[in-house]
C-alpha cells in the first residue's frame, strides 16, 4: 500500500488526531515481512517497538514481521476469510483498531476483539 492511500484510510476512520505518522512498505520498496519495513516505520515514529501497533491482513507478512521487530500486531480478517491465527488479536474492520489506539489495548492478548 502507498502512504497516500493509508492517509485516506486514517482520515476515513477519524484517526487523524491519534495517528500523526505512518509508514507503508512502499516507503522502502521491500516486501513484508522484511525487517527494514518495520524499522523504517519505527524510525519515522521516533518511538520504541513496544509503543507501536501494526495492523495487517497477512499473518506472515504483518503479524510475524511486526513481532520480529518487537511491535504489537493486530490481524485484520478480511470478509469471507477463515481466521488463520490463534496467537494474535483478530479484528474484522479497521474501526476495531480504535480501542487499541485509545491507550487501553496494550498489551495485546490473543483474543477476538
Keywords:
disordered C terminus, 3-stranded parallel sheet, single chain, Rossmann fold, globular, 3 strands
Explained architecture:
By secondary structure, the chain is of the alpha/beta class. It has one domain: HAD superfamily/HAD-like (Rossmann fold, 3-Layer(aba) Sandwich), CATH 3.40.50.1000. The chain is 34% helix and 10% strand. It is built from four helices and three strands, in the order H-H-E-H-E-E-H. It has helices at 3-12, 35-45, 59-68, 98-104, and strands at 53-56, 72-76, 90-91. The protein has a three-stranded parallel beta sheet, covered by helices on one side. Strand 1 (53-56), helix 3 and strand 2 (72-76) form a beta-alpha-beta unit. It is globular and about 35 Å long.
Structural class by helix and strand composition: alpha/beta
Poorly predicted tracts of residues: 109-113
CATH topology: Rossmann fold
- Total number of helices: 4
Number of strands: 3
Amino acid at each position: 500500500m502507498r502512504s497516500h492511500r493509508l492517509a485516506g484510510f486514517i482520515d476515513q476512520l477519524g484517526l487523524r488526531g491519534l495517528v500523526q505518522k505512518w509508514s507503508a512498505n512502499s516507503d522502502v520498496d521491500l516486501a513484508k515481512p522484511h525487517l527494514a519495513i518495520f524499522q523504517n516505520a519505527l524510525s519515522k515514529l521516533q518511538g520504541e517497538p513496544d509503543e507501536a501497533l501494526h495492523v495487517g491482513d497477512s499473518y506472515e507478512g504483518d503479524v510475524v514481521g511486526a513481532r520480529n521487530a518487537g511491535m504489537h500486531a493486530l490481524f485484520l480478517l478480511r470478509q469471507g476469510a477463515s481466521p488463520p491465527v490463534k496467537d494474535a488479536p483478530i479484528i474484522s474492520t479497521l474501526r476495531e483498531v480504535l480501542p487499541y489506539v485509545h491507550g487501553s489495548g496494550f498489551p495485546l492478548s490473543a483474543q477476538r476483539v
